[in-house]
Amino acid sequence: MPRPPKRAGPLHSFELAVARTLRRRALLAPGEPVLVALSGGPDSTALLSALAALAQRGEVGPVRACHVDHGLRAGSERDAGHCRALCRALGVPFEARRVEVRAGNRQEQARRARYAALRQAAGGEALATGHTRSDQAETVILRLLRGSGARGLGAIPPRRGAPAVVRPLLDLSRSQVLAYLGDRGLGWLEDPSNAGDAYLRNRVRREILPALAALSPSAERSLARAADLLRDDDRALEARARRLVAGGAADRDGMASAPVAVQRRAVRLLWRLATGSRRGLSAARVEGVLRLLGRPGEGRVSLPGGLEARVAGGRLEVGAPLPPAEPLALPVPGPGTFSFPAANLCLRFEAPGEEGPFLREGAVSWPLWLRTRLPGDRFRPARGRGSKKLKAWLIDCKVARWRRDRLLLLADAGGRVLWIPELRVTAAGLEAGEGRRWALRLLPAPRTPACDGGGSLL
After folding, report:
1. Cα–Cα distance between 114 and 44 in angstroms, integer?
2. Bridge partners, residue 426, by sequence
3. pLDDT tens readout for residues 143-197
4. Residues 34 and 176 in one domain
5. What is the spatial distance between Cα 181 and Cα 187, in angstroms, rounded to a whole number?
6. Alpha-carbon span 209 to 360, nearest angstrom
7. Helix (H, G, I), strand (E, B) or coil at 290
8. I need a labelling partner for 13 at 20 to 30 A (CA). Which of 141, 244, 338, 361 fits?
9. Are 133 and 171 a contacting pair, CB within 8 Å?
């Protein structure tokens, strides 16, 4: 890839400031290639010029540029010609792409189409955008008006994703950008949409930031610094939330003992795992899930997109509603190791260690059945008083109705329930009588080293 023409003289102070940001925020390594998102506006023009100058001195690797035409206004194709001429003057390779913007929120759909085209053009290389400290301050104000928490107020991250999107101008103001362009004699394009009041950001830029600057000349810098601090706070809370979530579910007791800020992030993490997106779950929906967690027993609450949050078995899950339960009945002729691949289960009777539950061979009559519940099932829990219908016992334990038919039981042929693995309860008298004592194990796997052979007796 050809290098830009050598520029005489030392680096401009603006270019030195960009280099400091690259190093301090670890945005680009020396020699790392980068694609600049070039709209032709002042910010992206200054970014391209600064990175081209730094590339000549080995601060970054080869620089190239891509312009995306959204086709949303007449004459937009002329912008590509301006960008091409700029890149020719700077000795930077250039390409232009045109995208089709879907119906809906025009700004949002244009942003999505633009980034998709830019990532494709980057081909795995870093993508640099021209967001400045002024953009950061505006974004913080917009998020404040929306009532955002720490994640939203962290605003524009200096680096995001892999391949990375980097913002080398995030420590520089728009006034510094314009001064640099004047010093370098570089022209730029003005986006007509920035002149009107159709977008709230324009009013924040023209009215609110100047008013804040009149109160405190350092307002823009302070807002950008607040975004950095809040982003650090959010990362710490997010890391703690991740520790609560394992196997696509969150531990209920762990959630209850965590600060509410961590609980909210855990709920959003479960949503992201279920949908692949951060979007679509409002703050009100998150609070609804937390209220579900705060209620005793089990339950579920509907979420957007046909999903639901479920609390069951000491876990919180987010996913599609469970299909109707299918009856299951698997014969267990005697002590042994049994594999049931169709049910994704392995049942073992093994030599007892320190952990139960335990079953004494003489306490039961074989065969037993690993199955779902049936009408007439009775249960007398260990350390319980008397026997009662299993249905009544489950209701007393606040096991949700939708979950009862999904519970697996180990029962005898007479309908006496011996063990409910998921609830970790056994029947009274399970260790009474003569015969060998076994430890019971039910594993959620169709094939494990201890279950190969499918139904082999020990």
Report:
1. 14
2. 419
3. 999 999 999 999 999 999 888 999 999 999 999 999 999 999 999 998 777 766 7
4. yes
5. 7
6. 77
7. helix
8. 141
9. yes
- Find where tokens 């400031």 sit: 17
Helix (H, G, I), strand (E, B) or coil at 258: coil
Residue 369, φ and ψ in degrees, nearest 5: -135, 130
Does 228 fall in a domain? no
Show the domain range for 404. 329-443
Tokens matching residue 260: 């509410």
Q: Side by side, which strands form the sheet with 159-160?
A: 94-98, 63-69, 34-37, 126-128, 165-166, 159-160
Name the strands in the sheet holding 417-420, side by side, starting at the edge strand that comes first in the sequence: 329-332, 368-371, 409-412, 417-420, 425-426
Sequence length of the chain is 458
Residue 13 has pLDDT above 90, yes or no: yes
- Check whether residue 155 and residue 18 sit in a common domain: yes
pLDDT-wise least confident of 120-124, 180-184, 279-283, 321-325: 321-325
The pLDDT, as a whole number, for residue 456 is: 32
**pTM of the full structure:** 0.74
Q: Residue written as tokens 């049910």?
A: 343
The confidence band for 292, taking pLDDT boundaries of 50, 70 and 90, is very high
**pLDDT tens digit string along 34-65?**
999 999 999 999 999 999 999 999 999 999 99
Is the domain of 333 the same as that of 313? no
- DSSP 8-state code for residue 59: S
Q: Rounded CA gap, 337 and 440, in Å? A: 10
**Phi and psi angles of residue 319, each rounded to the nearest 5 degrees, phi first:** 180, -170
Give dist(CA 444, CA 421) in Å, integer. Answer: 11
Residue 421's Cβ-side half-sphere holds a number of Cα atoms within 13 Å equal to 18
The CATH number of the domain holding residue 256 is 3.30.465.60
For the chain, the domain total comes to: 3
Other Cβ atoms less than 10 A from the Cβ of 124: the count is 9
Does some domain include residue 262? yes
Shared domain check, 409 and 272: no
Q: Is 185 exposed, middle or buried (0-12, 13-18, 19+ CB in 10 A)?
A: exposed
Residue with tokens 């404040």: 144
Q: In this structure, what token pair is assigned to residue 429?
A: 């008298």
Residue at 58 is within a domain: yes
Asked if residue 420 is part of any domain, the answer here is yes
